[in-house]
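User: C-alpha cells for N(Alpha)-acetyltransferase 15/16 isoform a, please.
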Amino acid sequence: MTNISLPHKLEKIFDNAIKLYDQKEYHKSLEEIEEVLKKKPQHPESLSLKGLVLLEIDRKEEALEFCRKGLSLGITHFFTWQAYAIYNKKTKNYKESLKCYQRAYEKDQKNLSLLIELSNMQLLTRDFNGYLDSRKKLLKLQPNKKENWFAFSFANYLNKDYDMAIQTIEKYTTSNKIRNQNEMSEIAFYHNELIEISGNYEHCNEHLDNIFPFIKDKRRWKEKKARMLLILKKYIMAERMYYMLLDQNPSMNEYLDGIEQAKQIIPINAKREPWNFNEKQLKQLNELYSQLQKKYPKSLLINKRILEIKYSQNFKKAFIEYVIPQIKKGIPSMFSNLISFYQNLNIEKNMDRVKIIEQVMFDFVKRLEYVRIGKSDNDENNENDKNKKEEDSIINKKIEIEESRASLVYVYYYLTQHFDKLHQFEKAFEFLNKAIEHTPTLFDLYAFKGRLYKHVGDFDLASKCVEKTRKLDLADRHINNESTKYFLRNQQTKKGTEIFNIFMKDLQNFPNWRYFQVSWMTNEMGSAHLKKKEYSFALKMFQQTTKNYTAYYDNQLTYHQYCLKEGHLCSLMNLVNLTNKIYSYPFYLTAAKGVIEIYLYLHDQGAEFQKELITECEKLEKEINEKKKTDEQYLQLDDDEKKLVEDDDPVGKKLIETKKPLEEALKILQKLENQAGHSLDTHLLALKVYTKMGNYNSAIEAIQKIRKVDPNNFQLHKLLVEFLLQAKNNKKDLNEKINTTINDLQKELNIQSLSEYNQQFLQKNINKLEHRVSVAEVMLLLGENKEKAIEIMMKVDDLEFENKRLLQSCLNILLKLQSIDENYAIQYREKYSEKFKYSTDFNPQILEIRKEKKIQKQLEFEKKIELEKEKLKEKEKEKEKENKNQNEKENEKEIQKKTEKEDEKEKDKENK
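Assistant: Done. Predicted C-alpha cells:
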C-alpha cells in the first residue's frame, strides 16, 4: 500500500483526465494519465483511472490489471475502490461491484455521488434492505430534493413497509407545493396504489374521491374506482361506474366483465367460461346484453357476447345477424373475431355451434354463388321448413346483389380458416383456391395459403406463398418479417437473412445481431441452424437473445432515475415488477432452452466432437474475413459503420470453445429458476443439467417440482429413469444421506424395478402417443427388446389422428428413429406417408419432383431462349439478304444513271 500525493501541476492534469473520461474523450484522457504516470508510476488513482479508460477502448485484460494494481497500491483510497466497482459494473459482475461500492463508501462517507451509485447498484442486485438504508441517508443529507423523497418511499414499498411508504409520500405532498399538475396526478395515483397494496380498501376508495380534482387521466381513475367498488361489494355504484366507462369505449372486455360482476351474474375474479354458464346465468346475461345491444348497436364485442350465450336455433339467428354486416363490409378479421368459438371443441354444445356456423356459411356460399351467376334464390327448393324461410328472409333482406359479388371471397376465406382450424385441410385448400380464383389480388389469401401449407408440413411451398405475398407489397415490414420467418423454418437461412436485411438500409449486407435486438429473429435463426446441425451458429443466435434480455435488465437504472426525476412512481413500480420476471418471457425461455440443450449435447459428445466444430468454425471465419477484403460495400464503410457491423465472433467459435459446457448451461438455468419457476420447462431442464452434473439433491428437488405440476409427464418419465440409472451406477461414490433420499423417492413412486415401473407407465398411458414413445425410449435405455420398443414407438392409433399436434409429434418420432436406425425411419415414413401426404418430411419425393419440374422448366426456358435466338438469327440473315439486294439494286440504278448521263453527253457532243 502506498500513499502518494500529487504536486499541484500533476493534480490538475489528473483532474483534467477525469473530465475527459466523463466526456468520453478516452484517448485524450489516456494521454493525460500517461503524463502523470511517467512522473508518478505508483500513483493508485491514476492506475485505476487508466484501467477504466482501457476498458472503454476494448482492452479488457489490461484494464483489469491496472484496476487491481491501483487497488492494491491504494486500498485505503475511495477512488480505487470506486474504479474497481465501475469496472465490475461494466463487465456485468454486479455482486462484486456492490461490494466495491460499499468499501468505497466506507472510505468516504461524505461523497453523495458515491452513495447514489451505491443505492443504484443495490437496486440492480435487489438488495432492498441496503437500498432503503442508502436512500434514508440521502434523504437526511438532501431533504430539499424531491427524488430523495420519492426514492425513500419507493424503497419502503420494495421492503413491503407500506405504512412508511404512505407516510413518506404524505409528508412530501403536505410540506411541498407541487405546481406541475401531471406530476401531482402521478403522485396521487402512486399514493392510492400504496393504500390498495396495504389492503385497506375502504381508505383506498375514500382516497380516490379526495384525489379526483388532481387527476389528469380521468378514465384511469374511473377504472380504479369501479374496481374498488366491486371489491367493497358496492355493486350498484360499481355498475354505474362501468356504464360510464362503457359510454367511452363499448369494446372493452374489462368493462363488460365488470358489469356482469356488478350485477352478480359472474363471481368477482372468476374465470369467464361461457360453456359452463347455468340456465339462470344465461337468462340474466340475455337480458343484460339485449339492453346493451340496443344502446350500442355497432359494438362487435357486445354482439359477440350475445352469441356466446345462445345455442341451437337461437344461436343460428344471432350468428346470421352478427356475420352479415361483416360479410358486406368485407372484413378479413371475421374469423379472428370468432376464434373463441373454436376452443374446447371436446364439449358437445361448443362443437354444435361450430357445425351451425359451418352450415350458415355454406348457405351464404350457395346464395352468393347463385347471385354471381345471375340466378335467383327462388330456384332452390328448400322452403319447407319455417325456420329456414325466416333465415332466408333475413339473408335476402340483408345481402344485396351488387355487394354480394365482392362479399363472396370473404365467405370463402372464412371457410378456409374454419376448416384449417378443424384440421380438414382438403376442404380448406378447396375454398382457398376458390377465393384466389375469385379475387387473385387479395393480399391475405396468399399469406394464409402459406400458413395452410405450414400446418400440413410443407414449408417449401409455405415459404414460396408468403414470399409471393411479400412481393405484392414490398413496403410492408410485417409481411417482410413473415417471409423471413417462413424461409428460416424451411432451413433457408441465407434467403431468410437477405429478406430480413431489406429494411436494414445501408448495412443490409452486414447484419450484426448485437444491435438489432430482434429476439424472434435470433430465435428463428437459432432453430434453423440447430435443425441443420450447425451448432455454433445456433448457439450464437440463442445466446444473442439471452443477451438482449440481459441488456433490458441492465438498462433499467436509466429509466429508474428518469422516473424518480419526473415523479412517474407507478411506472417505476411496473418497471421493477417487469424486470423481476423478465427472464420468464417466452422468447427468453425458448432461447434459454436452446442454449442449455446445445451445451448438454456438447457435454455428451465429448472433446473430439468439440474439436471438429472448432475446426469448422475456423474455416468459416477465414472465408468471412477473405470475403470482407474483396467486398466493395464493406470497404466503403467509415470507421463508425465498421464498428457497428464488426463481430469478434461471427460464427460462434468462442462459445463452442468452452471447456465447461455444463457450467455455461447452469448460468442460464439459474436465471430461469429465479424468475421462471412457474414454467414446467425450467424444472425439466434443471433435472437434465443437475443429473449430468451429479448434483442429486437439486435433481430430486426438480423431480418433486415437476410432479407437483404434472405427475404423469412423459418427459419426466424418461428423465427420472435416466437419473435413477445414473444414481445406481454411482451408488458407491454417493454419501449415505443422498442414497437415503433416492431410496425414499423410489418408495414414494413405488418403484421396485425400473422395467416394471416402465410397463406400469405404459398400461396407464396406453392411448397417449408421447407417453408410449417415452416408454419405448426407456426400454432401449434398459437394454430390453429393441424390436418391441420400436413397434411401440411407431404405433399411431386412428383416434390420435384427430390430435392437432400429431404431425409435430410424429416428426419428433421420425427424428428419434433416424438416430436409432435409418431403416426404421424409412419404414415409419412409408407407413404414414398417406396420412401426412402434404408433409415433405414424410414424403421427401415431393421435393425431388419439384426439383425435377424446376429443372424441366429451366430446360424448357433455355430451349425457348435458344429457339428465339435462332429465330432472331434467321431474321437477321433475312434482313442482311434484303439489305444486300437493296444495295445491289441501288448500285444498278447508280450505274444506269451514270450510263445515261454519259449517253446524254455523247449525244450533246454529236449535236454540237
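User: Anything notable?

Assistant: The CA atoms of residues 247 and 296 lie 9 Å apart.
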